[in-house]
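Exercise 3.2. Students should predict the tertiary structure of the chain below and write it as structure tokens, then compare their answer with the key that follows.

Predict this chain's 3D structure.
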Amino acid sequence: MRNSLVPRWLLLGFCPGLVSVSLGAQTLLVANQGDSTMSVVDPVSARQVAVVAEGTPGVHGHEIGVSADGHIAFMPIYGSTGVGKPGIDGHEMLVIDVPSRKIVGHVDFGRGVRPHLAVLDPASGLLYVTTELDKTVTVVDPKTWKIVGTVPTGAEQSHMLALSHDGRRGYTANVGPGTVSVLDMVGRKTVAVIPVSGEVQRISISNDDKWVFTSDMTKPQLAAIDTVTNKVKTWVALPGTGYGTAATADGRWLLVAVPSKNQVAVVDLKSMVVVRGIDVPATPQEILIRPDGKVAYVSCNTSGKVAAIDLTRWDVQSVIVAGKGADGLAWAK
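Answer key:
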């Protein structure tokens, strides 16, 4: 089932899905790889209201993390290229004050480590940053901006990270090796490295922490890993090769970006079957579920846009113009 790209709000002349929710000063942040910027988006008007230039010539960020109060954004500067490709290796992370829209600090990793994704753990208050070339996840104190430790992943190209909701387990998608590392975030050690495929991309965890999902880049399928056995338990057939994933707030559905089809596939987590597809702009990458659970934001890389999907009606309610190469998403204040 394919839904029209024509937003309902254009047909009706207003956007009920957005104006019915009071979002206050909350903002959507978008990392734009193509022009080395961060977009600040007003989710009520669905418009970009500011742009923050990274100011890092030759290299750029891919992803964004946010502090607990939503006021500080952390953007690791990955480098000049994609995962596993030759290029300049990034060595720092920008610290951005969201309200003032200014870069206020830097975390320097001391050498080129290709820092990629920053994830805040609400349980411990620590910030974790994947540092690929060191085969680690680096631990940062988000209040002092100091490096306080590392967690070894036991694998190359540990690109993305998902955390269990209690913060005790971490899971990295190791792209080129096609594996997933299971990490003890408290003991700061590798628990297991799970073989998945010839190549994988992106990673997410179910709301009940029972499943970890990563996309097989060699076949149109999604791996569902049982977090008790640390093995792939089942495969979910997709309409095309998948990419980023995110579970809805109620835990019933998993949204999967399918770049080759310009679609978001919706998986029923009870049956592990795709039950619908939603058309979005070209090359969907990452999916972020809004905190109120009503909207999913999908970055669409080659189009430089973000699609806002109404999770009640399962259609695109607005298309937001961001920057060139829109990729990483985060929710801030």
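Discussion points: The first helix runs from residue 8 to 12. Residues 242 and 258 are 5 Å apart (CA to CA).
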